[in-house]
Every structure is written in C-alpha cells, then in structure tokens.
Amino acid sequence: MYLIATLLCLSSFTAFALAKTPHYKAVFGTRPDQTLSQRYLITAWIMLLLTLGLNISQAVGYGSLMFCGQMALAVLLLGVMLAFRPRWVRSLFYLLPATTLLATVLSIL
C-alpha cells in the first residue's frame, strides 16, 4: 500500500508542476489553457489527499510521517527530472497512472 501512496504522491506533484506554465511548456512545448491548469490543480489536490488518507489508514501513528517522506521524495525526483530532463516528465505523466493501477490490482490479489 505504501507503493500505491508513493505513486499517488508522485502523480500529484507531477500534476502540480504541469499546472504551471513554464513547466508545462518545458515538457510539452506549448502553453496550457486555463481550464487544463485548473483541472491539473484539482486532480493534484485530490490525489494528495488520497495519499494522506492511505498513509493514515495504514499506519495511524506514523502515517503523517510517511506522508511527509513521500512528499519529499516525490518533490526531489520531480525537481531533478524537471531540471535536467524535462521531456522525461512526459513519459512519467503517462506511466504513473498505469503503474498505480497495476500496483492497486496486484495489492488486491
């Protein structure tokens, strides 16, 4: 379950980054329109709250600590990727939902 929470957190911060015009332009080469940016922000907040909920439901005492660690890891990975290889974020943008879905299915089985 912590893998799912970490993937959700990374997806959330990817959406936060893509909601900003400079990051979106570095990744996709165009400017995002206002509705797309708002959708990214709403989706990012929902995924971040899901991550917090997952962590607290798994480890009541240490859930918030795990959440802080996952956020730090996600921001570090995304920041390094945006600084050195912004085009890789496009691949990450498409792979993260599939990987999260696969991890969820495998955890249920």
Automatic annotation (TrEMBL):
Pfam families cross-referenced by the UniProt entry: DUF3325
Keyword match Glycoprotein: no
Domain of life: Bacteria
Keyword set includes Signal: yes
Residue stretches spanning the membrane: 38-57, 64-85, 91-108
Signal peptide stretch: 1-17
Record's keyword terms, sorted: Membrane, Signal, Transmembrane, Transmembrane helix
Name of the featured protein: DUF3325 domain-containing protein
Lineage, broadest ranks: Bacteria, Pseudomonadati, Pseudomonadota, Gammaproteobacteria, Alteromonadales
